[in-house]
Amino acid sequence: VAYAVSFIKCGDFQTKSADLIDASLVMRHSVHKISSRNPASGSQYDYKMYAIVHSQAKECSKQIGDMGFELVLVEPPVLQEEIQGEHLRKNIHKEWCCGHDEFVKLFAYTLPEEIVVHVDIDFAFYKPMDHLFDAILFDKDSIEGQSARKALELERPNEKLPDKIGAFITRDWPQVAPGKWPPAYQAGFLVARRDPSIMTEMVEVIKEGNFTPGWGYGFGWGNLGYGGVVGSMAMQGLVAYYYDHIRPNNAVELNQCRHNHMGMDILYRPPVNYRRG
Question: Which of 2, 169, 195, 277 is within CB 3.0–4.6 Å of 113 for a Cys-Cys bond?
Answer without folding.
Answer: 2
